[in-house]
Fold:
Amino acid sequence: MKNVPKIWIISEVYHPDEDGTAHYMTCLAEYFARFWPVKVICGQPKYSARGTGALRKAVRHGVEIERALDLALDKNVLLFRILSMFVVSFSMLLRMAKGIRQGDIVLAVTSPPLMPILALVACKVRKARLVIRVDDVYPEAMIASGVLPKLELIPKMMVELNGWLYRNADRVVVLGRDMERLVRSRMRSDKRHIHVIRNWADLEAVEPSWIKPNPLLRELGLEEKDVIQCAGNMGRVQAIETMFKAADLLRNEERFHFIFIGNGAKKKWMEREVLEKALKNVTLLDYRARSEQNIFLNACDISMASLIRGMAGVGVPSRMYNAMAAGKPLIAVADGDSELSLVIKEEGIGWVVPPDDPVGLAAVISEAFSDRRRLADMGRSARRLAELKYAPAIILAEYYSLIEGIA
Structure:
């Protein structure tokens, strides 16, 4: 009789954090627990649930959870981020080395960048199989955000190390076609074990509400405005400056209002910019819980998602899928060959603007609101697309087939 393998989820972030990777890895672990024994190795909460003390060992929804040694440091400070990465990665390695057995399957994410390398070492020693889920491609993510200089020794070493990682993993999951191209170029190999599996839309939690008033808009006094929203991480790789310049260009168009929801490394700059330039057409809101998504994602007419130049293939904004679920047209402020931009252009659900073109962005926003019927049609198409291609059942079934194929 075939032995049932244990599935190991190796992710720095997990429940009760609920941002991006934490949400998806929690859902995946609990889905896999229907079919296999599952254990998660993760760190302490550090984003939406930061400061929430979590038990070192626990069981939740059939998933065994063990938390590695972690440092409660601010990840927006680069030095703290690097120190935390080393501590949590090696602590996770010790727990993997103690527990993983021959035939087990390890699913590891790529952030922090050292962790999947150590997971590969543990799998080689223990004769386990490794699936890498590429949430961010390194060192490109660090180069694009200015954290590392381009073509210096450390980035070159990281390119080689990650190429080795991708070649030696049993499977590599990427979140978009642009990421597939980049990862394949790093592999420098004809191995065909890369799988494009996109993130899903939370269709039950988020649904369209096209009729105003919206509770958040009512609270902010924006019920009569044409609202453009950007929700998610306000970090180094988001084209925040371009969106703010567009807001400045449109400051005299009183009907337009911009809402930014979230936190990140650029948040303090955003707050200063609003004050110094007296941007009365911009509202900044802190991170809001995932349970409030249906309200805040519907508090706009158009949703924006952005990535700075050079980020095509390096990451895919997960929020785009829930913006579709809310039936919102999208504006991508990103490279034209990014997955975000490709989906919008192919499906006709919005507009694409280069990440350093605030004049073009301002023009697109003016154009978008000039045809209300087209705007509404795009919103309905976005919702249909989420249902047809990005439903949880569809994406989870792809992960099941992947794991079943190597179990």
The chain has two domains: 7-200+391-406, 215-389. The first strand starts at residue 7 and ends at 10. DSSP finds 15 helices and 14 strands in the chain. Residues 78-99 form the longest helix (22 residues).
